[in-house]
């Protein structure tokens, strides 16, 4: 009987892969994940690339009867990750979870700020929230597909955040990483990509 271990590979750069994550990938007979992650973190291994997600999970389940499989997820496995979907579709498939460093951790480290008092809103395939959590002074938006900034500005104005500090962080850990401090009025017309918007009252 083999195993299936979920490995959080960090924000993208191999420099942020943990030692235990590296070891598990090395011990695996097959490595599953998005094509970009497989090329970066598991060159030379047998790959199971995410295509039709349900079909890949079934293949992983079948192979795990005889082989060890590492399933790569970006960032922290317990923070807005595919782990929930995996557990919903194939309960009990995963034998161990190896957490990674999230882009949120890296973002606040880059800014040299704490994030224990922040509220989080994932926009990966999700609409903007109708309202923000007013008890928090820091609001973190995890960007995904293109977001119309005018709708976001209306939401921020509704909560009196026109004079807050704004930070846009893109492609964290990659060579093209960008960190931009800007004002409410300087927000670009659209937000998208591998980015995080941090709003600090």
TrEMBL record:
UniProt KW keywords: Cobalamin biosynthesis, Methyltransferase, S-adenosyl-L-methionine, Transferase
Domain Tetrapyrrole methylase: 6-187
Pathway: Cofactor biosynthesis; adenosylcobalamin biosynthesis
Matching InterPro entries: 4pyrrol_Mease, 4pyrrol_Methylase_sf, 4pyrrole_Mease_sub1, 4pyrrole_Mease_sub2, CbiE, Cobalamin_biosynth_MTase
Pfam families hit by this protein: TP_methylase
Biological process (GO), any one: cobalamin biosynthetic process
Protein name: Precorrin-6y C5,15-methyltransferase (Decarboxylating) subunit CbiE
Source species of the chain: Carboxydothermus islandicus
């Amino acid at each position: 009987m083999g195993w299936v271990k979920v490995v959080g590979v960090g924000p993208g750069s191999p420099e942020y892969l943990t030692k235990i994550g590296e070891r598990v990938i090395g011990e695996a007979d097959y490595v599953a994940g998005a094509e970009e992650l497989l090329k970066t973190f598991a060159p030379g291994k047998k790959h199971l690339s995410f295509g039709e997600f349900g079909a890949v999970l079934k293949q992983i389940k079948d192979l795990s009867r005889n082989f060890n499989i590492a399933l790569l997820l970006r960032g922290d496995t317990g923070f807005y990750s595919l782990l929930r979907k995996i557990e919903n579709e194939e309960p009990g498939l995963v034998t161990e979870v190896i957490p990674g460093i999230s882009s949120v951790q890296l973002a606040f480290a880059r800014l040299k700020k704490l994030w224990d008092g922040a509220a989080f809103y994932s926009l990966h395939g999700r609409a903007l929230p109708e309202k923000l959590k007013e008890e928090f002074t820091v609001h973190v938006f995890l960007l995904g597909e293109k977001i119309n900034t005018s709708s976001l500005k209306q939401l921020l104005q509704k909560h009196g955040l026109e004079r807050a500090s704004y930070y846009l962080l893109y492609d964290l850990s990659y060579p093209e990483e960008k960190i931009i401090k800007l004002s409410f009025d300087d927000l670009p017309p659209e937000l998208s990509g591998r980015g995080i918007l941090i709003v600090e009252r």
